[in-house]
Structures are given as C-alpha cells and as structure tokens.
Amino acid sequence: MSRFAQGRVSCVLLLLAAGCGGEQAKPPAKTSADGKAASEADAACGEYARKLCMELGPRTDACRSVLGVVAVMSPRACAAGVSDFETTKARIVELRGACQTVAQKVCAALGEQSQACTAIRSDLPEIPPGHCLALLRDQDQLVAALRQREALSVPLSDDSWRALSAGQPPGFGAADAGVVVVQFSDFQCPFCAEAADTIHRLKQDYGTRIRFVFRQFPLSFHPDARAAAQASLAAHDQGKFWEFHDLMFANQEALGRDALLEHARKLGLDVAAFRTALEGGSTAQRVEEDLRLGQTVQVQGTPTLFVDKQRIADPLDYARVSEAVDRALGK
C-alpha cells in the first residue's frame, strides 16, 4: 500500500477513535478497568475499520463511510466483525464481481473504445460494492442512459455547426477565427451566472484568436428567463449586449419587466426603442430560433458549451474549456 493510502487509513482511524470512545464519549471519571475496556473497544473498532478499508480501497468513498458506520457500532459488534472478517471479505469479493459484470455489459453494449466503457472501468474501484447490485438489476436503463450520453459526445455535423454560428448573434472575437465557441445560456440559471466567468476569461485569454457566439436557451421553468433573453437582444441591437449580460447575471433576482427597463436606463440605452424591441415580435422570434437550434443539437440544460463542434462536459471547469480551445487552435 502506498504512503498516501496508509495516510488516509491512519486519518480514518484517528477520527474513528474519537467516535468509538474518544474524549467526548468518556465519562468524567474512569477506573483503571474502565480505561482498559475503553481502550480495547477503541482497538476493536479501529481494527475493524482498518480491515474494511483495506478491502474496499483506502481512497474510496466506501472506506470514508466506514467512519460513520463503525462509530455507531458497539464494541462487541466491532469485535465480532473482526473475528468473523473472512466472511465479510468473501462478501466484498462477491459484490466486486457484480461491479465487474456491470463494466463488462456496458463495454459489450457500447464498445471497448467508448467513453462510457473507459469511464466505468476507471471509476470501478471507487464504486461502493453494494451499489453494483442495483446497477446490475437496472442494467438496461443504465446502458440506455450511457448510450444517450455517448451520442452527445459525438462532434456536431458541419451543417449543424454552421447553423449555430450563422447570422449576427451576440458574441466577440474575429469573424474569420479558425476556432468557434458556442454557448447556450439562460439568464435566470445560477449555473449560467457562474459560466459567465468562463466567457470573460476566454475573452481575456484568447481575444481575437477565437469567435465566441452566445445563444439563448431560456428554460420553461424559469418564469423571467424568456423576457430576459429578449431584453439582452434588445440591448444587443443598441451595442450594449455584454454590459446588459453582466448586469442581469449580477442581479438575477431582478429580471421582471420593470427591472429590465431600469437596467436599460442605467446603461444609457434608448429606453423607448428598448421597450418596443422587448414587447415586439422581433426579439421573441429570435429567441425561438435559438431554442430550435438548441433542440436540434440536443441541448438538455444550461449552460451548454461547444468548442470546435465538440460538446464540453463541464462548461464551468475553465481548465477543461481552455484545454479544448488550445487543442482546437493547435489543429
């Protein structure tokens, strides 16, 4: 076992000692016999936790959960667990077999080279053994869900990609940049507010080397999102999209009609023209067109980000986004 793994086990055992009769669990006064019994209880619980973590993997969530389980066990139960540990060990081996079966079925269904197969084999040591039985029972649903996810990892077609970057949507960068980044966003979505930082960092780090395209995707359960999307396009028509973008994400609790008009005044927009655009059909139609584009490329939530036709798994992870941009620029 590595030093790192040994350290993790030691940490668990140190914490476990407090839970299995540490300072808080001790009565005010103890006889020497009481102290000996408490020490033996600590040793039994610590030994049981150590053995479990050795079998489950010292760095797994299953090992970390041992602390909570053993802390509520009686010393007698800990001691019994230690004495009959071979039975527990055999059960863990049996459950691990279920995990291997799940991985084999996923890889057989989706292919050894699929992202799902690679991921499940990589994650296998971290999966609590008991969870694999549930996955095995629901393997059809699991394979179906992974198959759908796998389909989302396929790069967009040339026609779909051209459609996403066509027209004059809000954005920045050179029109003829070799790398295009497209984001679908919702102004009432808290995750999209976090993703706004990603956008600003892209602009700062890459400037005109990329073209960034902002597409609207107001979700139906966000009551103010559609009006906010229209308002952003009305601001875009007056050359203030990014200022309005930042103001709305900084004030997501204030996206009603009056608040949007106040934002327009604050930014020095022509409020009459803004109101006309907000209440007219033009901006509403453009939002609908973005929604249809998103549905065509299977946008299922916001934010959704594409770099060079490829959907990014975590658009809030700037390191992953910039890595994709760098890879695309290096082609």
Task: List the defining traits of the structure above.
331 residues; alpha+beta; Glutaredoxin; 5-stranded mixed sheet; 16 helices; elongated
Which helices and strands occur, and which strands form pairs?
Layout: H1 3-19, H2 32-56, H3 61-71, H4 75-83, H5 85-110, H6 115-123, H7 129-137, H8 139-152, H9 158-165, E1 171-173, E2 179-185, H10 190-206, E3 210-216, H11 225-237, H12 241-250, H13 257-266, H14 271-279, H15 281-296, E4 304-307, E5 310-311, H16 318-329
Tell how many strands the DSSP assignment holds: 5
- Report strand %: 5-15%
What is the averaged pLDDT score? 84
Low-pLDDT ranges:
1-34
- Helix- and strand-based class? alpha+beta
Q: Return the CATH architecture of the largest domain.
A: 3-Layer(aba) Sandwich
Instruction: Give the domain tally.
Output: 3
Number of helices, where a helix is a run of at least 4 consecutive DSSP H or I residues: 16
Specify the biggest β-sheet: 5 strands, mixed
N to C succession of SSEs: HHHHHHHHHEEHEHHHHHEEH
Shape: elongated
**Helical residue percent band:** 55-70%
Backbone CA Rg = 28 Å
Largest sheet: spatial strand order = 1-3-2-4-5
Query: What is the assigned CATH homologous superfamily of the largest domain?
Result: Glutaredoxin
Distance between the termini: 42 Å
CATH fold call of the largest domain = Glutaredoxin
CATH class of the largest domain: Alpha Beta
